[in-house]
């Protein structure tokens, strides 16, 4: 499998989504346990207590490298851990690091990673404080955003080196079939508060409906509707983490006038209602 060109790599810049140190009491651990629908390549270093993520048990002194997928997590007792989230995707939506994850690794195997993790968490905390728990919603000066971008690149270099050391091969991504590019562009620009229009999407491509569905699924890992719904879901996640916004306002931003219907839609995707998701991140 050929390595990507630098031009191809530069089309997929890494984005730092959060960097924080968390410590929860036993009661908070119970409250924070439950389903989690990750869209990021999350890394945890557990310093105290233990966590079960899916079928993986992570104890003190161990790393957890999570896959960007839905997972069930359970925190046991008092738990303290470092956590960094990185969103790193090819333009067609595939994550650079997904195959081969999740992994639980003893701390001594990645001794060079821990100081960098500590430094990134410290630097993000000094820049933005508690807002470092979810950076996409951060509003700040350009110099702060530029520094966060620099820290994201620093963590991406360390993360990629750790994956190489562990033998995790990145997904090379795909060069999207030219017949699909107009469809992707339309789905990317489609207003989030408008209903998905399969006929309009179909008209943007010379392919038949069946060919479009099959090829789009094959190359992006999602059908056109799911590709659009993922955009809506990520928008909602970001908006829910703005404390000043009411959930009703977030629902309206993606076209829901019925709050109960919005709650059901979000829970199907995340495994928890919007209020619980907001509480899990913002505490």
CATH class call of the largest domain: Mainly Beta
How many strand units? 7
Count of the domains: 2
Radius of gyration: 19 Å
Please name the CATH topology of the largest domain.
Answer: Jelly Rolls
Oligomer state equals single chain
Main β-sheet description: 7 strands, antiparallel
Helices and strands in order:
Layout: H1 6-10, E1 15-24, H2 26-32, E2 34-37, E3 41-53, E4 56-58, E5 62-65, E6 70-87, E7 103-106, H3 113-128, H4 142-166, H5 181-189, H6 198-203, H7 209-220, H8 224-240, H9 247-253, H10 259-270, H11 274-282
Antiparallel strand pairs: 1-6, 2-6, 3-4, 3-5, 3-6, 5-7
Helix pairs in contact: 3-4, 5-8
Features:
283 residues; alpha+beta; Jelly Rolls; Arc Repressor Mutant, subunit A; 2 domains; seven-stranded antiparallel beta sheet; 11 helices; 7 strands; 44% helix; globular
């Amino acid at each position: 499998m050929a390595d990507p060109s630098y031009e191809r790599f530069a089309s997929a810049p890494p984005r730092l989504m959060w960097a924080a140190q968390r410590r929860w009491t036993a009661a908070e651990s119970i409250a924070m346990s439950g389903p989690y629908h990750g869209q990021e390549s999350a890394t945890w270093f557990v310093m105290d207590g233990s966590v079960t993520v899916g079928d993986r048990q992570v104890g003190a002194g161990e790393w957890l490298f999570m896959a960007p997928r839905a997972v069930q997590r359970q925190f046991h007792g008092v738990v303290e851990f470092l956590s960094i989230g990185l969103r790193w995707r090819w333009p067609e939506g595939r994550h650079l690091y997904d195959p081969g994850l999740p992994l639980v690794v003893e701390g001594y195997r990645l001794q060079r990673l821990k100081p960098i993790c500590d430094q990134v968490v410290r630097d993000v905390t000094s820049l933005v404080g508690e807002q470092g728990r979810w950076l996409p919603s951060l509003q700040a000066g350009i110099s702060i955003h530029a520094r966060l971008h620099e820290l994201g690149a620093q963590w991406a270099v360390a993360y990629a080196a750790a994956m190489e050391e562990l033998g995790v091969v990145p997904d090379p991504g795909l060069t999207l079939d030219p017949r699909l590019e107009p469809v992707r562009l339309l789905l990317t620009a489609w207003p989030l508060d408008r209903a998905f229009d399969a006929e309009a999407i179909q008209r943007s491509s010379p392919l038949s409906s069946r060919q479009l569905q099959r090829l789009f699924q094959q190359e992006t890992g999602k059908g056109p509707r799911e590709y659009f719904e993922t955009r809506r879901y990520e928008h909602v996640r970001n908006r829910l983490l703005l404390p000043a916004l009411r959930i009703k306002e977030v629902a309206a931003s993606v076209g829901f006038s019925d709050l109960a219907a919005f709650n059901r839609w979000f829970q199907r995707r995340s495994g928890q209602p919007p209020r619980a998701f907001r509480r899990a991140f913002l505490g």
